[in-house]
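Annex B. Sample input.
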Amino acid sequence: MKLTTRGSLAAVLACMATAVAAAPAVAGTTVPVGLPLEALETAVPVEAPKLSTGVPVPVPGAPDGPRYVTGNLLPQNTVPTVPIAGELPRTLLEVPVENPVGEGNLGVAQAVSEESDLKLASPGATLGAPLSQPAGEGLGLPEPTLPQAALIAPALQGAPTAGLLFG
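Annex B, continued. Sample output.
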């Protein structure tokens, strides 16, 4: 192997190792986002609100794979559900409240939502075979039956909380 090939291979392996090492650090976090609303001040003659929030980073888990059940030719969870976890970020909205009688501000109204864990399960499906199990009678041949199909509903679980403050 040439020296340049070895160097390129070492660089690729180093990049892959760095990406693998950094992946657990990113998982389960949020990406902060600050929205620039200062441009509203030019269109509307009021002080612009401040909004800071984040974008959750979804982390997929191990799918709930097919399970074999006695009496069925096809396994349950033919199309498995995939769990996805994330975290709703802290969101803060600050709106200055102007004094309607005079000049100046009365204070700042704040709407705050705290961080919250979020769990989601994707939809899945279970399908039945159009044949029954081989029977003891009739030379052990299976009989035709109506196939059964079932959909597994998606699930969303979280407990977000929020509060309104004036100060």
